[in-house]
Specification:
Elements: H1 9-14, E1 21-32, E2 36-40, E3 48-51, H2 59-63, E4 70-79, E5 87-98, H3 114-119, H4 128-150, E6 154-155, E7 161-162, E8 174-175, E9 202-204, H5 209-219, E10 221-229, E11 242-251, H6 255-276, H7 278-293, H8 305-314, E12 318-321, H9 322-330, H10 333-336, H11 353-364, E13 368-374, E14 390-398, E15 402-409, H12 414-424, H13 428-439, E16 445-451, H14 452-460
Parallel strand pairs: 3-5, 6-10, 12-13
Antiparallel strand pairs: 1-2, 1-4, 2-3, 4-5, 7-9, 8-9, 10-11, 11-16, 13-14, 14-15, 15-16
Helix pairs in contact: 4-6, 4-7, 6-8, 12-13
Bound molecules: adenosine-5'-triphosphate and manganese (II) ion.
Manganese (II) ion binds at residues 395, 403, 406.
Catalytic activity: tRNA(Asn) + L-asparagine + ATP = L-asparaginyl-tRNA(Asn) + AMP + diphosphate + H(+)
Subunit structure: Homodimer.
Enzyme class: ligase
């Protein structure tokens, strides 16, 4: 009997064969009345119930069936008489694979706060909420690759350790093997990076874009999907020090093609989740509804999680220029009543997340793509528009999240790019290879970056980004 091959709980529930002898292995969620074990193996949000003949089972064994214990159960599959499940296993044999001392195991069958669960991130995958998030995260990884593969894009690995400090998207983490207590120094007493591992200063990447652009200049359409690091000291619910970013880069796309692709991409991901993660989404939807009930009326969201997902999948995003957005914001109630922390005085102001959220959540009530930003608040590589003031940048803004995508048409004209680099004061030696792309066979091209965890936040409805990555890295926190 012990040799019976294990069946995953999902398989048993999807296609049950009544009367068949089966073996499942998993973790005990609850054990009721010395009789009913709810077992979960992570293959689905649903548990299978094992029914124990307690009168004929060793009492010592029964005592070891506790929440969190890992067990192997063998028995016949039968139609269930109880509510809540259609089939159950009539247990013939139980083996305890791993005990979980109920006095010490921190997860008990009750609602734990997300803050508490973050402190036990090594165990939180054993809750319904986190196993659902992990499964959806996997489905989204797969959907990203499928979306681009189906469109003829190639996945490219760009370096994680970068020698270019012109990526310009935030503070970087240094990578070094120099002895911090006694680093090599040059004649002027400065740290001598010539003595360092790579013979120069290196950092963890903040974006694969610049290297991604090199690949699109030969493969036409590429995307990267890799770890990204930013040493921003911002303790928000939307920033991680280590996160994953998807960066497509396309030759022959202008800013409009870029916006079309970005919109199609996020809609595809949302639809993929709706089609393939319905059990997990139904669970998270209910979880969010229960949560809402504890909040005052005015703080509750108008739409449920599932309604929000369907809304995004079915409606066109609003495309608005930066200039139009500034007009809307300047004349908005919170600006006039000085409710914004940063008041919008005029054209040229950088938009804060309070402004982005006003546009998305209050004014348009749908996802918004803002484009054509002032060149002075955007990166050097964005294509200058003919007005001389703006660049062909675009940000996709989502309800509850703010910026989920940032992108642009890239400056493909050598002279204009070189001039901008000089204006900003980036040494040419840092970007010689990037400039060469514009010297040899340059082409109009565009791209964007989607923050993967922000997308997972939207799809799962989790309000804190620390809850959508297994082990979050944030200021003062690198446990596990
Ligand atoms: P923000 O203004 O929200 O800090 P950003 O403008 O610095 O973002 P980009 O450099 O445009 O971001 O990066 C592209 C995308 O990467 C963003 O739209 C966002 O989805 C994601 N992203 C950026 N920084 C972080 C971070 N620290 N943690 C998680 N995701 C991030
Ligand atoms: Mn951005």
């Amino acid at each position: 009997m012990k040799d019976l091959k294990r069946t995953k709980i999902k398989e048993l529930l999807d296609a049950p064969v009544i009367g068949k002898k089966v073996n499942v292995k998993g973790w005990v969620r609850t054990f009721r009345n010395n009789q009913f074990i709810a077992i979960n193996d992570g293959s689905t949000i649903n548990n299978i119930q094992g029914v124990v003949d307690f009168e004929n089972t060793d009492e010592k064994l029964l005592k070891r069936i506790t929440t969190g214990a890992c067990i192997s159960v063998t028995g016949d599959l039968a139609e269930s008489k109880g509510k809540g499940q259609s089939v159950e296993i009539i247990v013939e044999n139980i083996e305890i694979l791993g005990d979980a001392d109920p006095e010490k195991f921190p997860l008990q069958p009750k609602k734990h706060s997300l803050e508490f669960l973050r402190e036990i991130a090594h165990l939180r995958v054993r809750t319904n909420t986190f196993s659902a998030i992990y499964r959806i995260r996997h489905a989204m990884i797969f959907a990203v690759h499928k979306f681009f593969t189906d469109r003829g894009f190639y996945n490219v690995h760009t370096p994680i350790i970068t020698g270019s400090d012109a990526e310009g998207a935030g503070e970087m983490f240094r990578v070094t093997t120099l002895d911090p207590a006694n680093p090599a120094k040059d004649e002027d007493g400065n740290i001598n990076y010539k003595e360092d591992f790579f013979g120069k200063e290196t950092n963890l990447t903040v974006s694969g874009q610049l290297e991604g652009e090199t690949a699109c200049m030969g493969l036409s359409e590429i995307y990267t999907f890799g770890p990204t690091f930013r040493a921003e000291n911002s303790n928000t619910s939307r920033h991680l020090a280590e996160f994953w970013m998807i960066e497509p880069e396309m030759a022959f796309y202008d800013i409009n093609d870029n916006m079309d692709l970005a919109e199609a991409f996020v809609k595809y991901l949302v639809n993929y989740a709706l089609d393939n993660c319905s059990d997990d989404l139904a669970f998270l939807n209910q979880r969010a509804l229960d949560d809402e009930k504890t909040k005052p009326q005015q703080e509750r969201s108008e739409l449920s999680l599932l309604e929000r997902l369907k809304f995004v999948a079915e409606n066109d995003f609003e495309r608005v220029t930066y200039t139009e957005a500034i007009d809307i914001l300047r004349n908005s109630k919170p600006n006039k009543k000085k409710k914004f922390q940063y008041l919008i005085e005029g054209w040229g102001a950088d938009l804060q997340s309070e402004h982005e959220r006003f546009l998305v959540e209050k004014h348009f009530k749908k996802p918004v793509i803002l484009y054509n930003y002032p060149k002075d608040i955007k990166a050097f590589y964005m294509r200058q528009n003919d007005d001389g003031k703006t660049v062909a940048a675009m940000d996709v803004l989502f309800p509850g999240i703010g910026e989920i995508i940032g992108g642009s048409q890239r400056e493909e004209r050598y002279g204009i790019l070189k001039q901008r680099i000089d204006e900003i004061g980036i040494p040419e030696k840092d970007l010689w290879w990037y400039l060469e792309l514009r010297k040899f066979g340059s082409a109009p091209h565009s791209g964007f970056g989607l923050g993967f965890e922000r997308m997972i936040q939207f799809v799962t409805g989790m309000t804190n980004i620390r809850d959508v990555i297994p082990f979050p890295r944030t200021p003062d926190n690198a446990e596990f």
